[in-house]
Amino acid sequence: MKNLFNTLNKIFFCIIFISFTNLYSQDNPPKILVVIAHPDDDASCAAANYKIVHDLKGIVDIALITNGEGGYKYSTLAESIYGLELTDEAVGRKYLPDIRKKELEAGGKIIGIRNYYYFDQKDHRYITSADIKEILDSNIWDLNFIRNKLTEIILNENYDYVFILTPSLGTHAHHSFTGILALETVSALDSNTRPIILGVTGSNKTDSVKFIYKGFEGYPITNVSDTIPFEFDKTQKFSYKDVLDYKIIVNWLIAEHKSQGTMQLGMNRGDIENYWYFDINRRSGIQKTQELFDKLKINYYVKKDYK
Predict the structure, then answer these.
(1) Helix axes 89-111, 46-54, angle to 10 degrees
(2) Number of separate domains in the chain
(3) What does the pLDDT look like over 129-162, one tens digit per residue?
(4) Residue 19 above 90 pLDDT?
């Protein structure tokens, strides 16, 4: 009888401990800062962000570096919507900053973005990362302002993670340089308290060759040694008869960026959001990150019965 009592007592305290652990976990949801160059770059990690907000009750904020004025060339279809000749450079550069902020926030309402930080740096023109020094040498952006403001935001908000687009040779130089600035900012913080920073790329399940991101040559701060990224599967099913997936959410967000015609061609593209663990992160953060992505694999949808 005594042994039974002791066993029941242990079970009781285990239940209390598990309940407390779950409660603690709910009280400390993940907190993310997404640092992007252009307003429509939010689509790169929109699916995971949606699930972080809606299922894990987390917080996602966006820091936008440029004002988006350089996106006028493909605004043809949006001219009748906004009543402006946006493909005229002078008109586009004047009106697109406000238009694209509104589009970003409309998409963010779908995802559940909490807050926006606008840096309003000039979106001067499209250049690839091969010409990345053009941004550095021409003083187009106020780099001290960007670093200081990012540092202030990160320290004030105590984020768990920072998401960026991975800097690489073939992409837009604004994407790469924004990522590098975020990496430099995080790296300058205390290693024990700074957020984990992850770089995002996309892929398809049908890809015959798996892309492995190792970093951007010439910028050691971008180095990644782990050859397997953390993944968020946008095709994971949920809802009634499991017919919905997270590509729908990304499509909704893309549709809000109406001033960017080529952005609409991204509908349904990409099955996987890959998140690369930069070497500047502490190794002890890998387990924490794995736990986050394990939670993102769980189907939290409550099944409903229909007659």
Answers:
(1) 40
(2) 1
(3) 878 888 877 789 999 999 999 999 999 999 999 9
(4) no
Give the Å distances, CA to CA, from 142 to 85, 135, 137, 178, 213. Answer: 30, 10, 11, 12, 29
pLDDT digits (tens, 9 = 90+) for 96-117: 999 999 999 999 999 999 999 9
Quick check: pTM over 0.85? yes
* Angle ∠(31,108,257) on CA atoms, nearest 5: 140
| 100 part of a folded domain | yes
Dihedral sign computed on CA atoms, order 36, 110, 295, 18? positive
Whether the CB-CB separation of 164 and 200 falls below 8 Å is answered with yes
Looking at the chain, how many residues does it have?
307
241 backbone φψ class: left, alpha, beta (φ>0; ψ -120 to 50): left
Residue 10 lies in a domain: no
Separation of alpha carbons 225 and 278, rounded Å: 8
CATH of residue 140: 3.40.50.10320
